[in-house]
Specification:
It contains eight helices and 20 strands. The protein has helices spanning about 5-10, 30-40, 85-95, 105-115, 165-175, 235-245, 310-325, 335; strands at about 20-30, 45-50, 55, 65-70, 75-80, 105, 115, 120, 130, 135, 160, 180-190, 190-200, 210-215, 225-230, 250-260, 265-270, 275-280, 295, 300-305. The strands form three sheets. It has a ten-stranded mixed beta sheet, with helices on one face. Strands 2-3-4-1-5-9-8-6 form an eight-stranded mixed beta sheet. A two-stranded antiparallel sheet has the order 7-10. Helix 2 (about 30-40) crosses helix 6. The mean pLDDT is about 95.
Length: about 350
């Protein structure tokens, strides 16, 4: 974020611009598959910690993805790097003021994540939210098939959720991180009519995307997250990892395409745990002085076509959505409140 915008946010009591997506914690029983997926397909650096723990690096930060053995087959926590202690304490005070329980991370938990000053609190969809002030960096060389990934001042990539209570999810991220709406997309994808909300916590186009079925309280996705995104350094990195995903036999969810709103060129693979993994290149960066939210009628200018999807797959997605009616979604109402309606 620009120095002027950061100063303005700080003076107003906002933490916008001081928040960056820092790491993701994934729980899985498919360790061997995840190692092949992360290193041989996507092209990240791998560090084995124990029989039950491994990490992926994509830059000098010690941990960007912590993979731990367990039954969830899903994302279980997202870690947010808070740029300064004032913003960190401001967020902590907000959580406490709303009566939401806070847990101080142990030294061991912080070390596994490669961070200092770790706090954890409940988040939407049962995904724990973790904040930290200082990432631990490593001078050890990266051994990656990719030439690099884009992180830096805007954090890494984004996380996308599907929700039956999207306005409450938006309310949550606004209450905690002063997230701003970037834009909206309305489109039918695989037979499901969706409205997608894109939220930013700094000048990255979005760090959180929230998709909802229009007009129905259904969640057609069985995992807590719909997909994760990381940003490749070059177009060649996108193309080569796309080829590796195919050659190694991992499922491809959506072919290469370009999005209408953030202009990112990307593809979506399917992880060993079942949720999507988007590898993208060259999204726009928001100019906070001029940006106004817009609604788009298509998610992509071209491409992003389903790969190998059958009518049986579509029927299964509808069955999953119907089952979601019987399981209430966790929204942390103390922070999400009644929600923030769309502009």
């Amino acid at each position: 974020m620009s120095a002027t915008a950061t100063a303005t946010a700080s003076e107003s009591g906002s933490v916008f611009g001081a928040v960056h997506l820092g790491y993701i914690v994934i729980e899985t029983g498919r360790f061997a598959d995840w190692r092949r997926f992360g290193t041989d397909a996507i092209g990240m650096h791998h560090d084995a910690l124990s029989r039950d723990l491994m990490r992926f690096r994509i830059d000098d930060q010690e941990c960007r993805f912590l993979i731990r053995r367990g039954p969830a087959e899903d994302v279980v926590a997202t870690g947010w790097h808070i740029a300064d202690h004032t913003a960190f304490e401001r967020i902590e005070a907000r959580i406490r003021a709303h009566g939401v329980p806070l847990t101080v991370g142990t030294d061991e938990e912080a070390a596994l994540r490669g961070v200092q000053r770790l706090l954890r609190f409940p988040g939407p969809k049962g995904i724990a939210q973790e904040i930290y002030t200082t990432p631990v960096t490593s001078a050890a060389p990266l051994h990656m098939l990719a030439s690099g990934f884009v992180t830096g001042d805007l954090g890494m990539g984004h996380i996308a959720l599907t929700s039956t209570r999207p306005t409450r999810v938006r309310g949550y991220f606004n209450a905690v991180f002063d997230a701003r709406p970037t834009d909206y997309v309305e489109e039918t994808i695989s037979g499901v009519k969706l409205r997608i909300r894109f939220l930013r916590v700094n000048e990255r186009h979005h760090s959180v995307a929230v998709a909802a079925v229009r007009g129905l309280p259904l969640d057609p996705i069985p995992t807590r997250v719909q997909h994760l995104n990381i940003q490749a350094a070059t177009l060649d990195d996108v193309a080569r990892s796309y080829q590796r995903v195919h050659e190694l036999g991992f499922d491809m969810a959506l072919s290469i395409g370009r999005h209408t709103n953030d202009k990112e060129l990307s593809y979506y693979a399917r992880t060993p745990s079942g949720f999507g993994w988007e590898v993208g290149w060259n999204p726009i960066v928001i100019d906070e002085t001029t940006w106004e939210p817009t609604t788009y009628r298509s998610i992509s200018d071209w491409g992003h076509l389903p790969v190998g999807r059958t009518i049986l797959d579509q029927l299964e997605q509808f069955r999953i959505g119907a089952r979601s009616l019987a399981r209430p979604e966790r929204t942390v109402p103390a922070l999400g409140g009644s929600g923030i309606p769309d502009d």
